[in-house]
């Protein structure tokens, strides 16, 4: 038996302890997908399934199933990977059709839905049905940067998994010059930080951060902040990370003052915006961002 070392926090040790559906969070796309492929391979391995207590992460690397998996032709494995487009209702229907058929190798069936945040609302609702009717040998994994953008009804039917990362202190020791907000935005992902250092993205983070602070002080109009980030998905998510962080800060503060109405309202607006913004493209995006900033500016300043 071989073992994929999976960097997944609090993953059950035994296959029989696994739930039917998981949301797997991780900002590092490569790392979360490679972990999930390792897990899927292990769940499908035929040698594994002959063990009564099969250990999660183990696979033989020699059986028919392992060979099919390595050749990307496993009939009981389905990967939905829409990085740029949206995941529509047809994509979700394909997954339920897939699960409604018997497994080809009479073992487990595994679906990995990468970029789950790109699901349309209709697709999410269609997926609910699949999540509500678990078959006993099927596993569904929804991969996303942050579960915050998924519908609450989806969240309530899934368990959560996270990538295991170094602590903030360990990362600070490796990258002493990095600001806390950059480490925080990476979700403590070392490979993400590494790529930002290599791509010289750090300066841009600092610029957005400084603009955001000025915006909070009402020294910079909305459109300057928006123009800085709107065409750059990474910088847009960074800005929204800063906004979310600010709201959390206000929530904590309000715990002592007792007046949390503004922070709560801002938090609700942010959740709504996150749900609607994935469908907004092009020019309309900066319009939507501008409306959003207008609606929260007085609440978070
Ligand atoms: Zn195998």
Automatic annotation (TrEMBL):
Reaction catalysis annotation: DNA(n) + a 2'-deoxyribonucleoside 5'-triphosphate = DNA(n+1) + diphosphate
GO MF annotations, alphabetized: DNA-directed DNA polymerase activity
Entry-linked Gene3D superfamilies: P-loop containing nucleotide triphosphate hydrolases (3.40.50.300)
This protein's record includes keyword Nucleotidyltransferase: yes
Enzyme Commission number(s): 2.7.7.7
Pfam families found in the cross-reference section: DNA_pol3_delta2 (PF13177)
Keyword Lyase: no
InterPro entries noted in UniProt: DNA_Rep/Repair_Clamp_Loader, P-loop_NTPase
Assigned keywords, A-Z: DNA-directed DNA polymerase, Nucleotidyltransferase, Transferase
Example of a GO biological process term: DNA-templated DNA replication
Classification via PANTHER family: DNA POLYMERASE III SUBUNIT DELTA, REPLICATION FACTOR C / DNA POLYMERASE III GAMMA-TAU SUBUNIT
Protein's name in the database: DNA-directed DNA polymerase
Organism classification: Bacteria, Pseudomonadati, Pseudomonadota, Gammaproteobacteria, Alteromonadales
């Amino acid at each position: 038996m071989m073992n994929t070392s999976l960097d997944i926090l609090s993953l059950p040790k035994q296959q029989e302890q696994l739930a039917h559906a998981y949301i797997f969070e991780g900002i590092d796309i490569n790392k979360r997908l490679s972990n999930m492929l390792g897990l899927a391979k292990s769940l499908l391995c035929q040698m594994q399934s002959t063990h009564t207590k099969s250990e999660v992460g183990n696979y033989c690397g020699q059986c028919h199933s392992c060979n099919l998996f390595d050749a990307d032709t496993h009939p009981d494995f389905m990967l939905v990977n829409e990085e740029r487009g949206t995941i529509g209702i047809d994509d979700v229907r394909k997954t339920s059709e897939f699960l409604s058929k018997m497994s080809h190798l009479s073992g487990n069936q595994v679906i990995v839905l990468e970029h789950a945040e790109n699901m349309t609302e209709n697709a999410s609702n269609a997926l609910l049905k699949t999540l509500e009717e678990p078959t006993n040998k099927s596993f569904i994994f929804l991969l996303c940067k942050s579960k915050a953008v998924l519908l609450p009804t989806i969240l309530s039917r899934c368990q959560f998994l996270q990538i295991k990362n170094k602590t903030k202190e360990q990362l600070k020791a490796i990258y002493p010059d990095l600001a806390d907000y950059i480490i925080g935005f990476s979700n403590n992902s070392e490979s993400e930080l590494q790529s930002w250092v290599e791509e010289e993205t750090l300066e841009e983070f600092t610029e957005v951060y400084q603009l955001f602070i000025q915006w909070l002080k009402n020294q910079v109009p909305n459109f300057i902040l928006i123009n800085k980030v709107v065409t750059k998905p990474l910088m847009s998510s960074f800005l929204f990370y800063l906004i979310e962080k600010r709201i959390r800060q206000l929530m904590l503060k309000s715990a002592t003052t007792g007046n949390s109405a503004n922070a709560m309202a801002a938090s609700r607006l942010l959740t709504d915006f996150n749900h609607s913004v994935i469908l907004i493209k092009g020019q309309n995006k900066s319009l939507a961002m501008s409306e959003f900033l207008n609606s929260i500016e007085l609440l978070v300043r």
